[in-house]
């Protein structure tokens, strides 16, 4: 017998505000005999290496009756999300022992038995990882869904002339720090906001954008008056609420907005969320405002994404940043910290070392 103890994170209670790790989640330990799994054809077993922690996961922690673009998490079930894992046993020719596997619906557990019916939810990324030769965790960051969201969001602005001004809210978060650098590479004047002085320093000195400010110390309205006296041409929004309202006031005629998220309201009820009051200016300024889901918008840009982003990372034009905590039992706290803006760049959880 080869016995392992596999810890998992179970979703126990629907939060009404910011989740509380010890209340809304439970760490459960399960004894697993790796020699007695009775794998049928098409089944395989993975060891989780890294978990991705993302804002959308908070939106799934809701009443199942509330409709949205994603399904609600089920109570008393193991949480799920993006992950990169390594195959340790297999009865599936597509996934060999030692291969790297990525997927957006991986369970938050140290070891996973993937049955044939679930196998299509996962991708064997081994060859691509070896070909590119960059650190493994980058595949949940700039080379994965996070980087793709930033890249696709930027491309959705359409034709962009260098020298124009873009403002990015949540600019030091997982998506924000990537699109901030892409915009700079493409020749735009880049302004970013964040809620921490150290992140302002990162955006200015490491990401190399033109202006950054701490919205907790200076309002968006004041900052844009100072840093964008000629107005905003493009806006990539991760925050929503009052930030969106202030940016509408500073937008130039025919400015283009891409709305990626609204993290300012993720822990609030509909009644508590800030209501934007100046929407008529969308009409008077003829603003182009577009929301998007990367799963729908990405296909035309996938090839360009892989070519350009890998090149930028390898050349050093695009700096990769992440906040990594260790131990799967710390995943709930990592999620809550990310929702409070404590991460710089992508929030990850390192679960285990890869096998040689």
UniProtKB/TrEMBL annotation:
Any GO MF annotation of the entry: oxidoreductase activity, acting on the CH-CH group of donors, NAD or NADP as acceptor
InterPro entries per the UniProt record, alphabetical: ADH-like_C (IPR013149), ADH_N_2 (IPR041694), ER (IPR020843), GroES-like_sf (IPR011032), MDR_fam (IPR045010), NAD(P)-bd_dom_sf (IPR036291)
UniProt-recorded name of the protein: Enoyl reductase (ER) domain-containing protein
Gene3D superfamilies xrefs: Medium-chain alcohol dehydrogenases, catalytic domain, NAD(P)-binding Rossmann-like Domain
Membrane spanning residue stretches: none
Lineage: Eukaryota, Fungi, Fungi incertae sedis, Mucoromycota, Mucoromycotina
UniProt KW keywords: Oxidoreductase
Domain Enoyl reductase (ER): 42-349
Pfam families linked to this entry: ADH_N_2 (PF16884), ADH_zinc_N (PF00107)
């Amino acid at each position: 017998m080869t016995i392992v103890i596999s810890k998992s994170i179970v979703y126990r209670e629907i939060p009404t505000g910011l989740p509380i790790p010890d209340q809304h989640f439970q760490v459960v330990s399960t004894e697993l005999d790796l020699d007695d799994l009775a794998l049928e054809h098409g089944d395989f077993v993975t060891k989780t290496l890294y978990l991705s922690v993302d804002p959308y996961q908070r939106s799934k922690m809701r009443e199942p009756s509330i409709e949205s673009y994603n399904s609600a998490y089920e109570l008393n079930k193991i949480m799920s999300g993006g992950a990169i894992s390594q195959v340790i046993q297999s009865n599936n020719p597509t996934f060999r022992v030692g291969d790297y596997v990525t997927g957006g619906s991986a369970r938050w557990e140290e070891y996973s038995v993937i049955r044939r019916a679930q196998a299509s939810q996962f991708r064997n990324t081994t060859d691509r990882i070896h070909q590119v030769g960059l650190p493994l965790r980058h595949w949940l960051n700039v080379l994965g869904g996070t980087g793709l969201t930033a890249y696709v969001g930027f491309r959705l602005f359409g034709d962009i002339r260098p020298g124009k001004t873009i403002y990015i809210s949540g600019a030091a978060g997982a998506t924000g720090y990537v699109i901030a650098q892409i915009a700079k590479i493409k020749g735009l004047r880049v302004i970013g906001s964040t809620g921490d002085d150290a992140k302002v320093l990162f955006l200015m000195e490491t990401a190399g954008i033109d202006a950054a400010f701490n919205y907790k110390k200076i309002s968006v309205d004041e900052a844009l008056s100072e840093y964008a006296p000629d107005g905003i041409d493009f806006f990539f929004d991760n925050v929503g609420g009052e930030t969106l309202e202030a940016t509408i006031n500073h937008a130039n005629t025919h400015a283009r907005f891409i709305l990626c998220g609204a993290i300012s309201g993720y822990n609030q009820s509909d009644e508590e969320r800030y209501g934007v009051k100046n929407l008529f200016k969308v009409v008077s300024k003829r603003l182009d405002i577009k929301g998007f889901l990367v799963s729908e918008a990405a296909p035309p840009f996938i090839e360009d994404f892989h070519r350009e982003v890998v090149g930028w990372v390898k050349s050093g034009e695009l700096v990769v940043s992440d906040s990594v905590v260790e131990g799967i039992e710390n995943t709930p706290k990592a999620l809550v910290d990310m929702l409070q803006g404590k991460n710089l760049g992508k929030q990850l959880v390192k679960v285990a070392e890869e096998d040689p």
